[in-house]
Amino acid sequence: MATTKKPVSAQAPKRRAADVAYDTLETLISTLQLQPGAQVVEAELVARTQLGRTPLREALLRMVSTGLIVQQPRRGLLISAIDLADHLDVVQTRRVLESLIAACSARRASAQQRKDIVLCAQRMVKAAAADRLEDYMQADIDLDRVNHAASQNPSAVKAVVPLIVQCRRFWYAYRHAGDTTEGAAAHLQLAEGIASGDAVAAVAGAERLSDYLQGFTERVIAN
Fold it and tell me: Is the pLDDT at 4 greater than 60, yes or no?
């Protein structure tokens, strides 16, 4: 099993308030608690999240740069709309990045990360079988975090995260057309490929996941 590790600190640094705010807003957007097209009202976000104005503003600016939030003259900040045709481009771009990240993770993951990513995927499989949507989505988020940390490729991770959020939001909006069992199986193949240390197997898992996402998108568009 080939591993190429970069030095890591013994203790993770304390997270910045703006990063916490970004993750909080990201969850609200991806789960449609903040609806596409809705106006962003800073005072309402402060009350809702119990976060400070300064970190929230920094997070909002970051989201403008990634397209999750748009700025329009005289209307201010708006949650970006879901464009069905554009979403195919999102999925196709994510495909390239996911394959790169999977290959990096297969080569660079620690022994613990290899165990953890399979456990996350197994949680997805169990949640899908029991039709527990929230458990399924939380395991999906946890799997992404392990995969991204294991890849040790911050450039690819920075590029893919906004696309993942858009895909997650798309899934929540059209989940009636989705199949969590199929999605969980694709994630399990990805996780097992990474855990094996075989970059080819990991990429095959990433491709299966991308095929699932593309097929889901095409079904939504067709209907």
Answer: no
User: How many residues are given for the chain?
Assistant: 223
Q: CA gyration radius for the chain?
A: 18
In CATH, which of 3.40.50.460, 3.40.50.720, 3.10.180.10, 1.20.120.530 is domain 84-222? 1.20.120.530
Question: Which CATH architecture fits 17-79?
Answer: Orthogonal Bundle (1.10)
pLDDT of residue 10: 42
Q: How far apart are CA 4 and CA 107, in angstroms?
A: 6
Question: Cα–chain-centroid distance for residue 18?
Answer: 18
For residues 145 and 140, give the distance between their C-alpha atoms in angstroms, rounded to a whole number: 9
Closest to 193 in 3D by CA, of 124, 128, 97, 98:
98
- For the chain, give every domain's residue range: 17-79, 84-222
A 10 A CB-CB count for 154 gives: 10
* Mean pLDDT, residues 72-83: 87
Residue 198: which residues within 8 A CB-CB, separation 6 or more?
Answer: 106
Q: In degrees to the nearest 10, what's the CA dihedral of 29, 154, 203, 31?
A: -10
- Average pLDDT of the chain is 90
pTM recorded for the entire structure: 0.83
